[in-house]
Request: fold
Amino acid sequence: MAHQAQSRLPAFDVRRALKSGALAALVAFGLFSLLIGLRTEQGPTGALILVPRPWELFWLVVAAFVGSFLRELVRGEQGAALARMVPAPVRNVVTQVAPYFGYALLAFAVAVPMIFYSNRYLLDLSIQILTYVMLGWGLNIVVGLAGLLDLGYVAFYAVGAYSYALLAQNFGLSFWICLPLAGILAAFWGVLLGFPVLRLRGDYLAIVTLAFGEIIRLVLINWQSFTGGPNGISGIARPSFFGLPFTAADDGFAATFGLEFSPNHRVVFLYYLILILALVTNAVAIRLRRLPIGRAWEALREDEIACRSLGINTTNTKLTAFAIGAMFGGFAGSFFATRQGFISPESFTFGESALVLAIVVLGGMGSQIGVAVAAAVMLGGFELFREFEQYRMLVFGFAMVSIMIWRPRGLVATRLPSVFLKERKLVSADMVSEGRG
Amino acid sequence: MEVFVQQLINGVTLGSIYGLIAIGYTMVYGIIGMINFAHGDVFMVSAFIALIAFLTLVALGITAVPLALFLVVLIAMALTSLYGWAVERVAYRPLRRSFRLAPLISAIGMSIVLQNFVQIAQGARVKPLPPLIGGGYTLIESDTFVVRLSNVQILVVVTTIALMALFSWVIARTRLGRDMRACEQDLKMASLIGIDVDRTISLTFVIGAALAAVAGIMNLLYYGVIDFYIGFVAGVKAFTAAVLGGIGSLPGAMLGGLLIGLIETFWSAYFSIEYKDVAAFSILVIVLIFLPTGILGRPEIEKV
Reply:
């Protein structure tokens, strides 16, 4: 049908575009007439009353019309040529710059506390971004490398956070002892949950991990005597600089090093702590990719049946990916607990899992640098558009859908193969079936 | 004994609602092999549409309950079908040839979109609706406990049975049903013999959404309160029902729905109400691990 239209009218087919615009407007009117056009409010008697909102509805319908009209209009020959032309040079630039970009980003990350030392707000935001970068890198091992869609990643984050909080409160253990313990416990949970379910196919596995995430959250809410229930745990011990607390006291960090006390010391320390933790995650992921286990992960992602025929133990391979991903989630969780000083099940909802997954998907599954950029863009974006806070989840849902449609490999969509013949060169994402590499 | 009978009635009612939602999951999974994660939220949207339609009708002066109910069912089914169609058109159709996880990720995105769209458009507060259909029958009356069967419960169960009969007839006897069964067996082959596959898939989503709309109205009538978050938990439970019954099987979806409804009510009555969602999620995990083909499902053969 499109071909016929083009042969009759090679430039712009206005009538066709008008028709498609009208249809879109009609659909938009149907979709939004009740839900946008009328708002239910609590009336004075307690019963619901309706408040009409004709203008919002009108503008949405107009927007649908214009959007569909323009889309249909540029769909012809020129539109396609335009679409083809743009990405190629952009992609080339991205490919050329990418390796250096990583180092530049790292240098910037190291320099952030020095540049913005007095800007507490920016430092806090950076710490938050780095936490998500770390979570993204951890989940990337599971989703990007091994191709297992984990919708309950936040459960391991929660295990890490609650392990640290409970160990520190009940046994007075310090952060540096709890950190590895939290990681081990999270990995243990990863194995425990992973063992029965990893035989399942991709989307069944996703749903089961979702269920596990919810089970853990519901247990955290309801097991009041152990976890504090919905009130959470407060007064969690702050981290110390290898035994030196960040206080104004004589044995504090500032006094020991002869510095003037400043509350920013702790923030800067936390910043470097999460930076190092994130970099460790990154280094481990990159190293593991080159080991036989990493190659098995990637092979598994591409074709599970082929892997099994080649004698790879798929259950063990999946389990290691699951456990290692969970371990980094646990580390990040205990960092979160020590930074906030307060945790509650509120912080570990499905929305959080979806956010981390969106970061991984947006960054390009399997791409380390892409995940870092995506985390910075998303959380930075949230902060920038603070006044539109209620729209942020909406936007990020749309972003997930759009990315899947237009750039299913994420924003960084070239691959560096981990095994190669003679020459190592980048491969376009279209050449491989899944993920990166 | 009285408690048991009462919970049985409640469980069957709840199970009917889950069963109707589960059909949407099972049909879509049967045909294109994806979990339509946004289906639970389509159900939630339908409940909101029904609520606003009710209030609009009251504002217009139509207060006769049977007429209002009839109109609301028509409006909600039509508009929710439009949502089902739009979701498929926007988020799933362009991904037909994409990689394995793409449709599921897109569906999660769509679910987040629908949830937040309703939250922004209608507010996050719980929306109450005064009971429209009162009355009922007292079945057993003892000194300590009264077993009641309300008119709403009768309506829910009867409607579900009627819809199931109608729907089974559509699948078994009509052209559309035949096309759907053909698509379920082999998409490529179906298109080769002249079935419009895109249209059939669209209609599958439309029918699934329409049934979810009925479930949404029932949910609104039965509980009397809705909020923008009901789709998530109801969706997971209905999906559990679909898997438990055997995904791809229509009687299975209904059976699974009934079982999940019964398990949930009995669990709440005899064990603990706080952990009722934990029970539902645990059943999902257990079923997927030990009985992935469900009760009435066919075993899936993995082909290279």
About this structure: Residues 2-85 of chain A form one domain.
